[in-house]
Design brief:
The protein has about 475 residues and is α/β, with parallel strands linked by helices. The chain has 16 helices and 23 strands. It has 3 domains: about 90 residues, Udp-n-acetylmuramoylalanyl-d-glutamate--2,6- Diaminopimelate Ligase, Chain: A, domain 1 (3-Layer(aba) Sandwich); about 210 residues, UDP-N-acetylmuramoyl-L-alanine:D-glutamate ligase (3-Layer(aba) Sandwich); about 150 residues, Alpha-Beta Complex (Protein-Tyrosine Phosphatase, Chain A). It is about 35% helix and about 25% strand. The strands form 4 sheets. The protein has a 9-stranded mixed β-sheet with strand order 10-11-9-12-13-14-15-16-17, with helices on both faces. The protein has a 6-stranded mixed β-sheet with strand order 1-5-6-7-8-3, with helices on one face. Strands 18-19-23-20-21-22 form a 6-stranded mixed β-sheet, with helices on both faces. The longest helix has 18 residues.
């Protein structure tokens, strides 16, 4: 990953201070660099290279190649003779990954933007994008691009926040304890959001209670006087509060909360709902995406926009203009077949939500429903049971066909059969490395008027099947 410093070039001596490191030998302290990168292939004379130690590769091994590319500013944990011979400005730190957090924190303090930190088991990106869509109707807003929500991606994103930004929305992912704490301390959010507590990361954390503890680490960086926004429909998040911050709850079940959604109506191309809050009731707010789960993201956006002083008209417009990006909740038409591509990531909660969207669409249109579901990762010892639970839920819907991919997918198929779905309407492919097998079976079944959901963890690579299916449909339509 590579970013350009939004404040312009920074000298090596100052960069060392911002990273909490030391400029070794005080070599070329006035050397200017305009950005920073962690990929050796992106290093150049204007960019500082950060040597990170990963599970598979060590960035320090690529320093000779980085120097050969013209890079002359290195942030690393150990210096080497080749750097000295090249006359490079070498910033030594105790931990390169932690140095990025120091850099982000220092950089953040120089900006005037109000910051929103978003974490949670599912819905982080949708919530980030929804808030961006709404706040952009009045303010200059920055959001972390794509999935740059890691211990590396989020801190680097902070360094590219434009200086005229009024709101910065930073997504914070995690896989274990301590990660959200580090990101939150780096970002110093004015507003912190926990979208929900799901079952993703059970492999690392063991229980939902531990996942909740890990997500609550976002409080570690929340500014005094800040606002914590929580899902009021999640019992694990009930009754959380503190003297140094204010807690705001949202609910999409009609439950009493600071911002409560009522009268939710899911139609074939949109979702309508009312919001009840201290300012009254706003009726018929509209999202041009399907699914009750999207209403939670809208409530967070509505709440922050209200607290920022935005008019209801602008909030309505921002919600209506929201569009999912990439292969998240993406709906398209191809030769009479409706394709729901939602295969960027998957957890039991998001899988069930996607199934409900497909089922609702088919119920309203009368179309046949086909679900192509694959493995959900990082679920630990409960993985098989959680996959079977998804199959159980699907079997109770009105979806006509189930295609599964991978060993976890086979558990989805088993759960569907155990709950009454006939074997004749289930097709299994246990091999992740053979997506063409699923495509071949799908081609035998699909017909104009069908609606097909693709949902799995990113590693399954279902987008290959989607592309193949569209090629097949288009070739048959010619």
């Amino acid at each position: 990953m590579k970013t350009k410093f939004s404040v312009g070039s920074i000298c090596a001596g100052t960069l060392a201070l911002m990273c909490g490191g030391e400029l070794r030998g005080n070599v070329a302290p006035d050397r200017m660099v305009g950005g920073i990168c962690t990929d050796s292939r992106e290093a150049d004379a204007d960019t500082a290279f950060v040597a990170l130690r990963g599970e598979r590769v060590d960035g320090h091994d690529f320093i000779p190649a980085v120097l050969a590319s013209g890079c002359r500013c290195i942030i690393c944990e150990k210096a080497s003779k080749c750097m000295e011979e090249a006359g490079a400005s070498v910033i030594t730190v105790s931990n390169s990954e932690l140095a990025l957090a120091y850099l982000a924190n220092t950089y953040r303090k120089a900006l005037h933007a109000r910051t929103i930190g978003v974490t949670g088991s599912v819905g982080k990106t949708t919530t980030k994008d929804m808030i961006h869509s709404v706040l952009s109707k009045r303010f200059h807003v920055y959001k972390t691009p794509g999935n740059h929500n890691s211990l590396v991606g989020m801190p680097l994103s902070v360094t590219e926040i434009p200086t005229d930004t009024e709101w910065a929305i930073l997504e914070m992912g995690m896989s274990g304890f301590g990660e959200v704490e580090r990101l939150s301390v780096a970002a110093q959010p004015d507003y912190a959001i926990i979208t929900n507590i799901g079952t993703a990361h059970l492999e690392m954390l063991g229980t939902r209670e531990n996942i909740c503890r890990a997500k609550l680490e976002i409080l570690c960086g929340l500014k005094d006087g800040g606002v914590l926004l929580l899902n009021g429909d999640e019992p694990l998040l009930a009754g959380i509060g503190g003297k140094s911050y204010r807690t705001v709850y949202v609910s999409a079940t009609g439950k009493k909360a600071d911002f409560s959604a009522q009268n939710i109506r899911v139609e074939t191309d949109r979702t309508l709902f009312d919001v009840v809050w201290a300012g009254g009731t706003e009726r018929d707010l509209c999202l041009y995406v399907m699914g009750k789960h999207n209403v939670y993201a809208a409530l967070y956006a509505f709440a922050i926009a209200v607290m920022s002083g935005m008019s209801i008209d602008k909030i309505r417009a921002g919600l209506a203009e929201f569009k999912p990006e990439g292969i998240r909740q993406n709906r398209s038409e191809c030769c009479g077949v409706t394709v729901f591509a939602d295969c960027y990531n998957a957890s039991p909660e998001s899988m069930i939500a996607a199934i409900d969207v497909l089922d609702a669409y088919c119920q309203k249109t009368g179309h046949r429903g086909i679900a192509v579901l694959g493995d959900m990762l990082e679920l630990g010892t409960d993985s098989a049971a959680l996959h079977r639970g998804v199959g159980n839920h699907l079997a109770k819907s009105g979806i006509d066909w189930l295609f599964t991919i991978g060993s976890g997918g086979s558990q989805i198929a088993l759960g569907a059969r155990q709950s009454g779905m006939t074997t004749a309407t289930i097709r299994q492919n246990r091999f992740l490395e053979r997506p063409e097998d699923t495509l071949a079976e799908l081609e035998k079944v699909v017909q104009p008027g069908d609606a097909i959901l693709f949902k799995a963890s990113r590693a399954v690579g279902e987008e290959v099947i989607i592309a193949g299916l569209k090629d097949y449909l288009q070739s048959g339509a010619k």
